[in-house]
Structures are given as structure tokens and as C-alpha cells.
Amino acid sequence: MTGILIIDDEPGIRRTLASILEDEGYRVYTSEDAVMGLEVLASEQISLVFLDVLLPLLGGMEALETIRTEWPGVEVAMISGHANVDMAVRAVKLGAFDFLEKPLSLDKVLTVCRNALAMHSLREENRDLKQNFRFSEEIIGTSNEIEAVRALIRQAAASDARILITGENGSGKELAARAVHNGSSRAGKAFVEVNCAAIPETLIESELFGHERGAFTGAASSRKGRFEQASGGTLFLDEVGDMSLSAQAKVLRAIQEQKIERVGGEKTIHTDVRILAASNKDLAAECGAGRFREDLFFRLNVIPIRIPPLRERPDDIILLLSHFLKSLNLPDLVLEEGAVKLLEAHPWPGNVRELRNLAERISVMYRNGDTLNAERARDLLRKNPEAFGGSAAARKPEGADFFLPRSIMDMNLTGARESFEKCYLEFQLSRNNGIISRTAEAIGVYPSNLHAKLKKYKIAVDGAVHSEREER
Questions:
Q1: Fewer CB within 10 Å, N side or C side of the chain?
Q2: How far apart are alpha carbons 141 and 187 in whole angstroms?
Q3: What CATH number labels 309-381?
Q4: What CATH number has the domain spanning 159-308?
Q5: pTM, entire model
């Protein structure tokens, strides 16, 4: 049932609107001020807010700005008995769906309500389509190893059983998790990912379970955690092996009892989520070393899925490379037999992520119809100083997914500097497991500056959290 919130300090307005909207079959919540209204938004599923302009404690315009920031998917219809054109224009600029004047026309209220909810549904559909488009890519490969993974995913997706996905960095664990979700009965619901390695221990409980207003310094409003956000859908705990023991205990309790409490709250919230977890670590060995709870391991490892590294499925390498090149508008690159053999023999320490990065570099250096022969492929893959224009100082670190093309010597200074900077950032991200805050600290820059560089060079970071939460 669609939830609608009415925030108005006049009891008569609240009662009248609530009666009309309940008669239309909506679930209606009311609040006499914006502060209480924001609490309702944080705890309930709301699609539309009727918001008065003149309110005690917190004005309607200020509340509108907060709603647009914290709950961008919620539509807001402003109402006022002292409206003017400037006020209406300002409200629309701030993101209001419409502006209603008192005394309210009931027909106008219902019209705005239907139109706003239609817009809300359209936004939700658009968001889902974008998400599905982004992750509609199937697991690519025809090798026996990847066919076995596909078969296990199809079998496991039909149930609600917890799944532990293991594999090396860059092997495609998140893609497998999304394939499980998309093949399940929860496919139409939320898929919420938590990168456990990217969230500081002091924030992990708030991130997972949410918090109430005033629970800690900076908690200006209540906030839903990832368990609540994933209600009815799937919660993916990526790099779960990096979670602290105290956080593991709280997650274990949430899984066992299927209920949570927000930080600073007393209300018990029942959860309905399917848990998928992933790790690049041997969690059984981590349990033996006392770094991972054995009881949580057994809870998560109901159905184990291992994603094989790329070196174990060499038959898929050229198929994957062709797929990436096609997506980069380079479908007609010619691969000579010598280049194919070199690529298939490469150990690919960065797995599919490394191969995708290679495809992006090829798309910059070559055009459709060009030929990638053995010598050129060797330039991309070799580890000796010649790959760096003969400079021993630029030697590739052993095992690193990092190279500088020989063609850098034919670039102007600006191009060479940018080429080096892009390769350097990719190497540092790989070294730090794609974690933005850790990489920024390692290279001595602010996370915001690193974000800007990644955007400039169009560097994708699998599993990284691109948000301010990581930087708090």
C-alpha cells in the first residue's frame, strides 16, 4: 500500500487530507511539525509528502531541502495559505512536485496526488531500468569452469538460502551475486551492496542497521540502514572477511533473529532480506586464526560458490576481451594468432578486472581494423624495462596489474603525464583492493581529489564505495 505523509500544524487540515486519501486506499501518516515528519520518513515507506510552508521548529522550505537530499525518490507537494509567485517558484526550484494554495481544492489535491505518485513510480522504474542495464551483463565464458558456476547459480537462485561467494580480486564475485538476485523471486526488489572493507569499524553498525536522530554526534536525523533498505530483496555483504569481530557478532544476531535495532533506538525492526556474502579470503582459515567467527561462517556458507580465476579458464580470455572491446566501440580489432597465445598464457593476477583494464587501454591506443600482433601484445604484457621505454626506474612491480605503453615516448608532455597518472592510479587502486579512502591515504591526497581523478580518467572501481560515508 502506498504511503503518504501529511505535515501541517493545523489539525483540521491533517484530518481532512487524511480522510480523503485513506478513502482512496492510501496508507496515511500525519505530523504536526517537520521534525517529527522527518522521523516518519526515516522509519516508514513514504512515496509522497504534503508539506506546509509555515511550520514551527523547522520551516517547510528547509524541510523540503532535507527531503530532497535524504530521500530524493520521495515526491513533495507544498501547501500554503500565504502563497505568492516567488514562493512557488522557489519551491519548484528546490524540487517540489507542485504547490497548492489554501483553502485546498479536494479535486486538486487528488489530481496532484495521482500525478505525483505516477511520477514516483516512473522514477522508481527508471532507477530499476538503469540498474538492470548496468548489471544486465551476463557472466561471459564457455569454459567448463564457468558453465559449472552458471549452473550452480541457476540452482541456488531459486531458493532463499544464504550463499558465500569466494574468489580472487577481480574474478567477478559481485557479478555472480547479482546473477543470483536477478534469477530469484526477489529480482524485482532492491539489491543492496555493502563493501565491508570500505566502512570504518566505528560506522559499520550505523551503516548496516541505521540510527536514530541524536544517537551520536552528527546524527541530525534518523536514517535507515542497509538491512532496512534491502527489505524484501537481497543484501550483499562484499569482502565480509574484512569485517571486525564485533560487527560480525551483530550481523550474526541479525541473521539468526531476522530483526534489528537502530543505533540509539529501542524499537525492534523485523527484516526480510536474503543474505549473499563474498570474500577473497579463505574464511575457514580465518576462523582457525581467530579472525572470523566460525558460527557466522557456517551461517553464511550454506551454498558455497567459488569463482575460478581467469588463469584457470584460458578458453574464456579472448571471448571476454572481444566482449569488452565491443562495448568500447572497438569490435573490429584483429587479433593475430601470436597475440592470442600470449594473452591466453598470461597469468592475469588481476583477473577479469585486469583484462577489462587492458581492453580500455587498447581502445585508446588502437582503432577499428588495426592489428594486435604478438609483438604489440608482448609490449602490453611484458615485465622487463623495455615495456617502459627502456627506463629501469620505471620497472613494473612484480605481480602488479600496471604498465606504461611504449607509445608514451611518442606523446607530448601533457599526454605522457596523463598516461602515467592513469596507470599509476590504477596500480595503486589494485594494490589497495579498490578502496578509495585507503588509496587516497597511501598516495597522500584527499579522497575527494582522488574521486575527481577517477572521474577524469574514467577509471571504474569494482566494489568501491563512492560516497562521503567512506570519508567521515
A1: N
A2: 23
A3: 1.10.8.60
A4: 3.40.50.300
A5: 0.58
Tens of pLDDT along the chain (472 residues) come to 688 999 999 999 999 999 999 888 888 999 999 988 998 888 788 899 999 988 888 888 889 988 888 888 889 999 988 767 778 888 888 888 888 888 888 888 999 999 988 888 877 766 655 544 443 447 899 999 999 999 999 999 999 999 999 999 999 999 999 999 999 999 988 999 999 988 887 788 889 999 888 888 767 777 889 999 998 999 999 999 999 999 999 999 999 999 999 988 888 898 899 999 999 999 999 999 999 999 999 999 999 999 999 999 999 999 999 999 998 999 999 999 999 999 999 999 889 988 988 898 888 888 999 999 998 888 887 632 223 333 333 334 444 444 555 456 666 777 778 878 888 888 888 777 788 888 888 888 887 778 888 888 888 765 443 333 333 3
3-133 and 159-308: same fold? yes
For the chain, the structural domain boundaries read 3-133, 159-308, 309-381, 396-472
Nearest to 288 by CA among 228, 357, 241, 238: 241
CATH 1.10.10.60 fits 396-472, yes or no: yes
